[in-house]
Amino acid sequence: MTDENNEEPTMDAFFGSQFVSSQSESALSLLAFDEIQSRSQALSLRATALVFEDPVSRRLQEQIERIAPSDATVLIIGETGTGKELVARHIHALSRRSKNTFGALNCAALSENLIESELFGHEKGSFTGALTSKEGWFETANKGSLFLDEVGDLPLGLQAKLLRVLQEREVVKVGSRQPVPIDVRIIAATNVNLEDAVAASHFRADLYYRFNVATIQLSPLRDRPGDILPLARYFLKIYGDRLGYGDIKLSPASELALLNYDWPGNIRELENAIHRALLVCPGNILRPEDFKLSGTRNAETKPSVSTTSLESALQRLCEQAPPKLFEIIEEIVIRTAFGFCEQNQVQTARLLDISRNVLRHKLGLYGLLPNSEKKSLEANNKLELTI
């Protein structure tokens, strides 16, 4: 959902001057900066909005306003699509660092080597393809804020290096021995339980404590229904204007349908639903049938597959009493989910509701990792034993 010919809309009139728009510098590094308006890269039309209408959101606003003026490291926890990056930008906008750079990196989107180069920078010739020296984002965001999304997916080796940066307030480029002092506020985010990751030895406890200075828990959209219609009207105006549809409104029945839907994809799903409805609506009033919402709040949960056959199979397996029964069941689940997702690790981790690091460990355990990733996992396991 991008349009390179349109600029990101101003939202001051809707939310006031505290709003900071969400944009992306490049598809490769998924990095975003406040100064991006002056660059030539394509702008993202994603406009996940902050709304403080629901009582839950008002408490969130109060918490943000207390935390923002300090330099404390912040950990934002929330489901996918709840607006974690936007909250990070809002914190930056309310801080004393607001006039300096805001950088954002999705830790789950890049390989370990690329993340290291993007974060810390590299010297010319430090690896194949390093034709010039490059400043890392810790240096670029100096005096500003750096948002690290999906920190639960950071490999252990990088966790150790990141911990040193947080402790020493200096970075060392790949291929260099010269430390560079930095002054950056870290805002981290995750959609997994880091305490569980620590208990499973997939996330360093000392790094978790460094992140967990000020914690913000973002509620899913279903738990703050007072925000649904204000968000819907905002997205309706933005996409209606872009499509040249003029004054488009929600019918009362549509408003009720939006309020009764559970929004498992949160704000991102609501935005896409509004955009899609505008494309199929024949008039200037959006009807419930334009949204095609598949479920409603308070609707009975009906499993899409029968559990009877699964229970029978497990019963027969238990009767055989094989050794390591739980591991056998776990391997079946991992193999089935991995095959269903066509060996896509990110999708498999989301389906099973576990972090990618945990999934990679399980895939390695059951011989499902590609050969190219086995050495990396073995190296991480050795590092885990030595730390």
Automatic annotation (TrEMBL):
Residues 50-279 form the Sigma-54 factor interaction domain. SMART domains: AAA. Keywords: ATP-binding, DNA-binding, Nucleotide-binding, Transcription, Transcription regulation. GO terms for biological process: regulation of DNA-templated transcription. GO terms for molecular function: ATP binding; DNA binding. CDD domains: AAA. It comes from the Bacteria. Transmembrane segments: none annotated. Gene3D superfamilies: 1.10.8.60, Homeodomain-like, P-loop containing nucleotide triphosphate hydrolases. The keyword Transmembrane helix does not apply. InterPro entries: AAA+_ATPase, AAA_lid_NorR, Homeodomain-like_sf, P-loop_NTPase, Sigma_54_int, Sigma_54_int_dom_ATP-bd_1, Sigma_54_int_dom_ATP-bd_2, Sigma_54_int_dom_CS. Pfam families: AAA_lid_14 (PF25601), Sigma54_activat (PF00158). This is Transcriptional regulatory protein ZraR. It comes from Methyloglobulus morosus KoM1. The gene is zraR.
